[in-house]
């Protein structure tokens, strides 16, 4: 089980504003905060996310092939998270919508993709009945 995921940032204050808004939409807040690191989540809850300035002092860079996914409660919340991201310094990587074909139970992967202000790739998703 994943406890948390950490992404690098070159501007912790700017990134914190971005993630505060997304975390707020998901109903979670900051659970840990230091001068160079902030984490959002619930102690004892699901996986959290952290942001940090790299320990080695070098610039934070984007991981090629790395993506963090936020599980939404419904399609409307996927849209709200995507909209929050784009309105607060994020960039579009694919508007919300179904991806792929429904599985044997009639469920489809529904997601919106975006990048944070540092370029880290994220998405908001859920498995949902085909509508």
TrEMBL record:
From which domain of life does this come? Bacteria
UniProt domain VOC: residue ranges:
1-127
What InterPro entries does this protein map onto?
Glyas_Bleomycin-R_OHBP_Dase (IPR029068), Glyas_Fos-R_dOase_dom (IPR004360), VOC_core (IPR037523)
What name does this protein carry? Answer: VOC family protein
Q: Which organism is it from?
A: Erythrobacter mangrovi
